[in-house]
Amino acid sequence: MDPPTILVLFYLGPGGETDIVEKYKHLMLQMNLFYHDVTKDQQELKPSVLEEGQVCVVYWSVLQSWCRAVVESLIVDSVCCTARCLLVDHGEHLVVSSDQIRVVTQNFLQLPFWVKRLHLMGIKPTTLQVDVLEERANYTLPPQPVVLLDLATDPTPIMLYVTVGNIKICVNDDLVAKKFALYNSQLAAGYELDEVDQEPVMLPASILKQTACTTTRVAVPGTHFLSASCWVRLFLKWLNPDLLDHDPDVVPSGPSKSTVLVHSALPVEPCSSWDDAPIMEHLRRGWWRAQYSTLSPADCYSWPAMARGCNTLVISQNSEQPLSYLAPFLTNILLSSIFTCQTSSKGPIAVVLCSGWEKAQVVYDLLEEIKVNQTLHSIIILLGLKEDEAKAFKIPKNCLLLVTTPFTLVRLLSCHCFLFLRLSHLVLDEADRLFTLAPEQMVTILQHFQKGNLKGEPMSRCHQLVAVAKRWSGHMGHLLANYMPHPCIVLSVLEEVALYADIQQIVLVTMESKKSSELLDLLDLNPNIGQKTLVITRSALEVEEVFKALSSKSAFCLMVHETLTHRFDCVMEQWREDIGPSTHIILGKPLFEHQGCHDLICADSCLSESVLFISERSTSHSVGILHYLERTCAQLPPQLLSFVQGVLAAREEQKMDRPLCSYLKTIGVCRDSSGCPDRHRLIYHLDQPLLPTTGLIEVQPLYVKTASVFYGRIIRKECHDDFQSMVTDLTSHYAEKKLAARQVKEGGLYVVQEATEFHRVKILSVSDRSDRLFSSNVVWFIDVGKTEEVKSYQLLELPQRYHSVPSQAVEMIVCGVRPADSEKDWHPKVTRAIREKIQGVPHQARVVFTLGRTVFLDPMVCVAHIPGMRTVINEYNVHTEILNTGMAVKNPDHLDLLRALCQEMGHMSG
């Protein structure tokens, strides 16, 4: 059996290091000048044949340099030829396409390879059945061989010493002490591992950090150096970071003045910034770091866990930003994808699941900006409901990372399940929304992922599941229990921590003047079991009032607030003391005060129930409180429900100057009524019909806003000449003289020229930016319906006689359809397909409902006249065309919901 081996960078010896380093630097410089020379025929430099063991030159994008290498294995398919190479002067493995490989000339082979093969003297591993790719090892005997491919055939035996600070460690002895290896003498004596010996030994989390600066010395003739980052990566190939049970920790997060709950199967050693984050070096650079310059408290604890491949669940306020997980997640993938790409199966090794197409596009665009697509060949897939679409779709064979939605992934799994056999990394972006919008699809995906973990190829069983969200939900408890063994859970939103901890929520509605008496009635001051109660108030004054009321009942009460900082230590010492039966200790503090005390209390408290007093002073928070309590099992007081209904009604009253919610019109309901700025009630003088409410009309779409919403003109035979005469007059008027607008005012009417046409526009907003040479204004084309930004110099004066001509643009909505897959908005390719078909083309339509200047159409068809006959035929139905895209479903309740709103308006006006 071969002994364990490592790769080191080989230098000559003391006194000769500077010269040899300069020689290798010169070699690298000459190689790059040669292979970057654009005057050379690159085809002649490409090898005619590639085979294992071949010495060549490859391009390494990390250093942006050409490097000497040896081909270790080849991956050939119908798409491309890829080679896994060892960089013989850097000790790195690299997977490159054949286009990035060049022949090596004799001039560049004069210096020996800078990598030397060594092995640890006097020890042999226990069963290190890793092959390096899996980064895991079992402890059973007999020993099995571990092989790291290298150039030398006769490795040099060494004793390896690691100096960490002032401590010098012999790695040979340390591996035996940690039961990862045995001395040769033990093997000769027939040593066997007992049950205790086979328990895994933990490594510190810092071992994964790529920025470590430990110096390693090798005890062989001459002096050899091995960087920390290099030997740690190599030792991880055969040291086993198996998971151990670990108690949850509540840890203060430092300068952010927030508390983070960390519940992890492994001890978590947090990072503090980008500089010491455990991510690959090239991920530290780029515009995204400026955009995401400061790590949140949750990032500091979750990034080390993600980077080391742990199952990780993060609840954080900034979880909506993909950058909150991409850097450590990509680090883990990029370090492992080199090896997993050698497996026999095809298909992606990682999938990022997003709640909708818009978020999926954001994630994919970030991957392009981070420049990992050239390595991972990531793609975005969004498939519709067409039966043959998923079956006909071909995933590129070199694709390692897939960005998609749960609905699309389930369709792919149903047709191409065999392409996801090596799926080993799964990210749930906005996990709470994924389970809300696609619960059945998520179950299917997770079951497939779990089966792959149990039955996948041996080389790809290192599974990782990452879930990020802003809110905790019951689905996540199921996720942790069934699909995330030994997870690292990081929560930085305290109200979500209460849900995660399953703290019982009790709500009491009372008058402000009666809160103190209600509190006294609630507290048991002589309990059978010792109790601690934390009372949180709005202010220091309220703390004083609570303290006075409790003291009057001879209760053992402590008090802290911002004017009592000198008493913090004393109070916390008493608060932490063990208490016996018949003892009740009460601590009162304001909600906002000294953070140090806040952290100590949170870290020391183990809450079993939470009592919330709601009074008339809670008006501004009542809606948020209700939405939070709805996510718990708390019984909601009827007074709170009725009070919140009144608050919501008052909020709607304040939106009377806002336009009617667009989602309410297009699908019948608002997708986010709590956060939507527009109104959701009809107002008679704003929404009374100004156009036909029933009957057949002829329409001409001029501007298609979405697949089901467009602006255009209702073609009226009796008014047709008036509008056309205005268009003709405007064309003649500006053919003679184009008078630029002298003064641009908001609300004013002007003219903008597009090609040979002149359009009336209304100024919606005037730019006040003085740093622009030409100011821009947002205008509405009143006869077309579109809104655009135009430069001030493009605005022409509109003759006064045309100001009174009514605007021609009418909003038209195709009824009875909505986006498929619980999407909020139409996918651009659906809108594009409908735009190409209907824009500028007259259609026949039936009006079924009208609100203000918005007409609802069902059906809307394009008719064609048969030459020489009075017969017409329907070429297509727009409603059907939208459904045929495969990204839409029927919406039969659309009109009923609109009519219900209309009835409500009738009751209110009556």
Automatic annotation (TrEMBL):
<dbReference type="GO" id="GO:0003724">
    <property type="term" value="F:RNA helicase activity"/>
</dbReference>
<dbReference type="GO" id="GO:0051321">
    <property type="term" value="P:meiotic cell cycle"/>
</dbReference>
<dbReference type="InterPro" id="IPR035437">
    <property type="entry name" value="SNase_OB-fold_sf"/>
</dbReference>
<keyword id="KW-0862">Zinc</keyword>
<keyword id="KW-0469">Meiosis</keyword>
<dbReference type="GO" id="GO:0007283">
    <property type="term" value="P:spermatogenesis"/>
</dbReference>
<dbReference type="Pfam" id="PF00270">
    <property type="entry name" value="DEAD"/>
</dbReference>
<keyword id="KW-0221">Differentiation</keyword>
<keyword id="KW-0863">Zinc-finger</keyword>
<keyword id="KW-0067">ATP-binding</keyword>
<dbReference type="InterPro" id="IPR027417">
    <property type="entry name" value="P-loop_NTPase"/>
</dbReference>
<dbReference type="GO" id="GO:0003676">
    <property type="term" value="F:nucleic acid binding"/>
</dbReference>
<feature type="domain" description="C3H1-type">
    <location>
        <begin position="655"/>
        <end position="683"/>
    </location>
</feature>
<dbReference type="GO" id="GO:0005524">
    <property type="term" value="F:ATP binding"/>
</dbReference>
<dbReference type="Pfam" id="PF00567">
    <property type="entry name" value="TUDOR"/>
</dbReference>
<keyword id="KW-0479">Metal-binding</keyword>
<keyword id="KW-0943">RNA-mediated gene silencing</keyword>
<dbReference type="GO" id="GO:0042078">
    <property type="term" value="P:germ-line stem cell division"/>
</dbReference>
<keyword id="KW-0744">Spermatogenesis</keyword>
<dbReference type="GO" id="GO:0008270">
    <property type="term" value="F:zinc ion binding"/>
</dbReference>
<dbReference type="InterPro" id="IPR000571">
    <property type="entry name" value="Znf_CCCH"/>
</dbReference>
<keyword id="KW-0347">Helicase</keyword>
<dbReference type="GO" id="GO:0016787">
    <property type="term" value="F:hydrolase activity"/>
</dbReference>
<keyword id="KW-0677">Repeat</keyword>
<keyword id="KW-0217">Developmental protein</keyword>
<keyword id="KW-0547">Nucleotide-binding</keyword>
<dbReference type="GO" id="GO:0031047">
    <property type="term" value="P:regulatory ncRNA-mediated gene silencing"/>
</dbReference>
<dbReference type="InterPro" id="IPR011545">
    <property type="entry name" value="DEAD/DEAH_box_helicase_dom"/>
</dbReference>
<dbReference type="InterPro" id="IPR002999">
    <property type="entry name" value="Tudor"/>
</dbReference>
<protein>
    <recommendedName>
        <fullName>RNA helicase</fullName>
        <ecNumber>3.6.4.13</ecNumber>
    </recommendedName>
</protein>
<feature type="zinc finger region" description="C3H1-type">
    <location>
        <begin position="655"/>
        <end position="683"/>
    </location>
</feature>
<keyword id="KW-0378">Hydrolase</keyword>
